[in-house]
Design a protein that fits this description.
Keywords: Cell membrane, Glycoprotein, Leucine-rich repeat, Membrane, Repeat, Signal, Transmembrane, Transmembrane helix. The structure is a single chain. The N terminus and C terminus are likely disordered. Among the domains are: about 140 residues, Ribonuclease Inhibitor (Leucine-rich repeat, LRR (right-handed beta-alpha superhelix), Alpha-Beta Horseshoe); about 90 residues, Leucine-rich repeat, LRR (right-handed beta-alpha superhelix), CATH 3.80.10. The radius of gyration is 33 Å and the shape is globular. It is mainly β and about 1000 residues long. The protein starts with a helix and ends in a 15-residue tail after the last helix. The strands form 14 sheets. It has a 21-stranded mixed sheet, with no helix packed on it. The protein has a 6-stranded parallel sheet with strand order 49-51-57-59-61-63, with no helix packed on it. About 40% of the residues are buried. It contains 10 helices and 65 strands.
């Protein structure tokens, strides 16, 4: 029985999860070791496993309480829904039983298909004794068929994640955006996980050829590299992987010749090569006793020398082939395969009668066929068929009636098959149907209209259809109310037809499981009838709604969000004529709008930027991420606007002073444009702005020094402009810019002569700062002196109607990267590209939680402080292009999480350290130091070679005044540039 402490912990943890029934399934009065998915040690009562896979749980993220389960050796949260939350930056290392190797159990972490997003944290890489890791992600496809990966593995990189996984035997990262070249990921696997048995990296953004270092992974049993942009010659050494059972290389760009020996591997059960058009696959003969269960060779340059040998595949369940190679001899062999359940054939002719002999076929997929002149009677022989998919083919007339014989049919897809006529009534007899796709045909009549016999087809209570797609047909008439009785519907697409009439929106409330609805491009009008608020949550699963042609009939819109689409052209004038008296929130961001259709009644001079207005509304227009090219000179129409964003457009010229007539404005975001001239003084002097974001423009001159006592500024971002001079001292009147709540200082690429301190991220790169660094200054950076064991995110700036989340762009591991959520664990100092000189103070070693230190391109000299070796959280260290001398401190080898090191272009001497991380760095990290020797440099060290003593410089007294300015400023500037709308 579990102890009371484990009981309380699991009880707290269970409260973070919800099921579709609204309960968490916990029985408070029972032993927690008997709860579903919980396993305990019988001797100690400690919880040793937590397996919650496929329980239909929902949560807003992983709670820190989970990491108190320190005895857990198996943690499986897969196939649940964590709502797109990010994985915690820290906490995983506290799962000590996943870190300490137990010879009797396999350490396993499975977070796959659970809706996580964002960067995979480095803390998972610290679980050094993991045997199995599955972070596979369900990537989604947009309207253009392009997949989007939610999880990222950039910083840390793939190499950084796996470098401590020497015990790993199974690695699944399907759908994780790794974006790595073949040399990088192959070399990392060969070096750090040489005994891996299962490798699954499907759709990970891998590119380039498979590096020869992959040949060292001779223990591999499963290789899944499907749907990457891998190219180059097929690796012949795959035939030497004697334990190989699964080889999936679908939709790559491999060339050369596939080795016949792979087909002779006795353990091979799955071979997928589909979509490698330049790969020659000569099948001389298939061995008797072959274990093959899945064989996919369609879309390759396949040749078959002995078709009869296909009869040896007695265990074959799935076969994908091109019809061009199916001869009568081959079809005769295939028709004897009694075990065949899945068949995909890409057609260019109609020799298909042999398929009727496959009595056990469950799934049949045919593409690019012409059925208009041939008999389709063979279809009716497939009595056990559960899925029929015929795509991009040609039929003549109605849907083949033979399909009505498939009483077990679950999936019916006849997309783009030139079908015409009515939808047949016999579909209502297919009681197991869950997926129906009849899109892109010429089906007519009115299968859904009121009074039609076809209403019975889709409103039958016996049908359990989850997905119904009838888009792009000629269906017409009214949509009957009885149609909405299909309460199992998850996806419904009726777009691009001729439906008309009035549709009451409350009828949608019956579709409790609906997650995607498209009624676009019809002639529908909508009636919004007041409904009981208790019914509204039933549409909580709806995440895709397409009603593009239906907006015109909605007369009282208050909030309109059309963001993140590909809408282009002109914003129509009827937007403003119809909604000018009701609209309070409008988001047209992330589109391709270029102009606005407006009469002088709504905006003088027909300007190109839409500025709707009405004195009774507090408006929140977002026009960011479009291609608008000019800005209105008269902003008097913005008198009730509290939030205004023109970010990331093509705006230029001077910003008119009339912007200050927007007296209610709390957020102004004009970032990433090409504005020039001086910033209007009124923006700082006398408006009620909370956030002013002018990042990456060409503003110049000095800031206003007249700031009122009631300054409300919380955030200013002037990054990437040409502002000069000192910061106004009266910024201290801005009480919301208190130092205690300031986490980020970004003054990059300006010409500031004053500096500020005590921050979590300090970016003073590319200024004209000079002098030497005082040792006492680092003593004040207390935030960077404490190890943080929390993934708390720095708060956004809160306004009266919403919030604005910080984002900062910094140089991180040699790349210019954006951090949308700044965790308290991320600490950065970037003084690069300035004129600092003298020695780096030893006190910098006190900053033990610092992650990034960049002092490159300055005039620092003397020895590199040994104390840097104690900053064990460092992931990136750049001291390049200075005048450092002496040897590289051996203590730097203690930086085991260092992913990027650059000591190039200095005056360093002696042997390069070889242990720990130093063995992973390239020669570019050390080039430009004539006195250095040893790997990875080509210069060999002499056994008697001794390093020369560095010439130390004395610090200048000038710094006392400059550093007084460092520590004497009682205010600062935080920077934020991306909107987190909570209006």
């Amino acid at each position: 029985m579990a102890s009371i402490s484990w009981y309380i912990l699991l009880l707290l943890l269970s409260g973070q999860f919800y099921t579709t029934s609204g309960t968490n399934g916990v029985h408070d009065n029972t032993d927690c070791c008997h709860w579903e998915g919980v396993g305990c040690d019988t001797a100690t009562g400690h919880v040793t496993s937590l397996n919650l896979t496929r329980l239909g749980l929902y949560s807003h993220g992983i709670d820190q309480a989970l990491f108190n389960l320190t005895s857990v050796q198996l943690l499986d949260l897969s196939m649940n829904d964590f709502g797109g939350s990010q994985l915690p930056a820290v906490g995983f290392v506290r799962l000590s039983s996943l870190t300490n190797l137990n010879p009797h159990n396999s350490q396993l972490l499975n977070l796959s298909s659970s809706g996580f997003s964002g960067q995979i944290p480095i803390s998972i890489g610290k679980l050094t004794n993991l045997v199995s890791l599955d972070l596979s992600n369900q990537y989604v496809y947009d309207n253009n068929g392009i997949s989007t990966n939610r999880l990222l593995l950039w910083e840390p990189s793939f190499k950084t994640l796996v470098r401590n996984f020497s015990k790993m035997r199974e690695l699944y990262l399907n759908g994780v955006n790794i974006s790595s070249s073949g040399k990088e990921w192959c070399t990392a696997l060969g070096k750090y996980i040489p005994c891996i048995r299962v490798l699954s990296l499907e759709n990970c953004g891998l590119y380039g050829s498979i590096h020869p270092s992959f040949s060292s992974l001779c223990s591999l049993e499963v290789i899944n590299l499907r749907r990457n942009t891998i190219s180059g010659a097929f690796p012949q050494y795959f035939a030497d992987f004697l334990n190989l059972s699964v080889l999936m290389l679908l939709e790559l760009d491999l060339n050369g010749q596939f080795p016949q020996k792979i087909l002779e591997l006795k353990h091979l059960t799955t071979l997928e090569l589909s979509g490698n058009a330049n790969l020659m696959v000569p099948v001389h003969s298939l061995p008797k006793g072959s274990s093959l269960e899945t064989l996919a060779l369609d879309g390759t340059n396949l040749s078959i020398a002995k078709p009869s040998s296909f009869g040896n595949l007695r265990f074959l369940h799935a076969l994908h082939l091109d019809a061009r190679i199916i001869s009568k001899e081959l079809s005769s062999s295939l028709s004897t395969l009694d075990s065949l359940e899945e068949l995909l054939v890409l057609l260019n002719e109609s020799f298909l009668s042999w398929i009727g002999n496959l009595k056990n076929l469950v799934l049949l997929t045919l593409e690019y066929g012409d059925f208009s002149r041939t008999s389709k009677s063979w279809i009716g022989k497939l009595a056990n068929l559960e899925a029929l998919v015929i795509l991009n083919s040609i039929f003549s007339g109605w849907i083949p009636p033979e399909i009505g014989n498939f009483k077990n049919l679950r999936i019916l897809s006849l997309h783009n098959c030139s079908l015409s006529g009515k939808i047949p009534a016999w579909i209502a007899d297919l009681k197991h149907l869950s997926y129906v796709n009849l899109s892109t045909n010429n089906l007519s009549a009115s299968p859904l209209c009121r009074g039609s016999t076809y209403t019975i087809i889709f409103s039958s209570g016996a049908l359990k259809i989850a997905v119904l797609d009838l888009s792009e047909n000629q269906l017409s008439g009214h949509i009957a109310r009885s149609f909405w009785q299909l309460q199992t519907l998850n996806t419904l697409d009726l777009s691009s037809n001729n439906f008309s009439g009035l549709l009451e929106l409350n009828t949608l409330l019956r579709l409790r499981k609906l997650s995607a609805l498209s009624l676009s491009d019809n002639k529908l009008a909508f009636l919004d009838v007041e409904v009981n608020n208790t019914l509204l949550p039933v549409l909580s699963k709806l995440n895709q709604l397409y009603l593009s042609s239906c907006l015109f009939s909605l007369k009282h819109i208050q909030m309109l969000d059309l963001s993140s689409n590909q809408i282009q052209g002109t914003v129509p004038e009827w937007f403003w004529k119809t909604w000018s008296h009701s609209l309070t929130y409008m988001n047209l961001s992330h589109n391709n709008f270029s102009s606005l259709e407006l009469s002088s009644h709504f905006l003088p001079n027909k300007q190109k930027i839409p500025v709707p207005g009405h004195p009774i509304n507090r408006q929140l227009p977002d026009y960011s991420n479009n291609i608008f090219s000019s800005i209105p000179e008269n902003f008097s129409y913005l008198t009730q606007t509290v939030y205004l964003s023109f970010a990331r457009n093509k705006l230029s010229g001077q910003l008119p002073d009339t912007i200050c007539k927007a007296r209610m404005l709390e957020v102004l975001d004009l970032s990433y444009n090409n504005f020039s001239g001086q910033i209007p003084p009124c923006l700082i002097e006398d408006v009620h702005l909370g956030i002013l974001n002018l990042r990456d423009n060409s503003f110049e001159g000095k800031l206003s020094f007249v700031i009122k006592d009631q300054c409300t500024l919380q955030t200013i971002d002037l990054n990437g402009n040409k502002i000069e001079g000192t910061m106004p001292e009266l910024l201290s009147n801005c009480s919301e810019l208190e130092l205690s709540s300031l986490h980020v200082l970004v003054l990059r690429s300006n010409h500031w002569s004053h500096i500020f301190t005590s921050l979590q991220i300090i970016d003073l790169a590319s200024n004209n700062l000079s002098g030497v660094l005082c040792p006492k200054w680092f003593d004040g950076l207390t935030v960077m002196m404490t190890k943080h064991d929390t993934d708390k995110v720095v708060r956004g700036e809160h306004l009266s109607r919403g919030s604005y989340q910080n984002i900062v762009l910094i140089t991180y591991k040699g790349m210019y990267m954006a951090f949308e959520k700044i965790c308290t664990t991320l600490t950065v100092i970037d003084f690069s590209d300035n004129c600092f000189r003298g020695r780096i103070p030893d006190t910098i070693g006190k900053l033990v939680s610092l992650h990034v230190l960049n002092l490159a391109h300055n005039g620092f000299d003397g020895k590199i402080p040994n104390q840097i070796g104690g900053m064990t959280d460092l992931e990136s260290l750049d001291l390049s292009s200075n005048q450092h001398s002496g040897e590289i401190p051996q203590e730097l080898t203690n930086l085991t999480f260092l992913g990027t090191l650059n000591l190039s272009s200095n005056q360093l001497v002696g042997r390069i350290p070889e242990s720990h991380q130093f063995g992973t760095f390239q020669s570019t990290s050390f080039e430009g130091n004539e006195g250095l020797c040893g790997a990875p440099l080509p210069k060999q060290c002499k056994s008697s070679e001794a390093p020369s003593e560095p010439n130390e410089s004395k610090p200048s007294k000038q710094i006392d005044f400059i550093l007084y300015l460092f520590s004497g400023a009682g205010f600062g500037i935080g920077f934020a540039a991306a909107v987190l709308t909570k209006w």
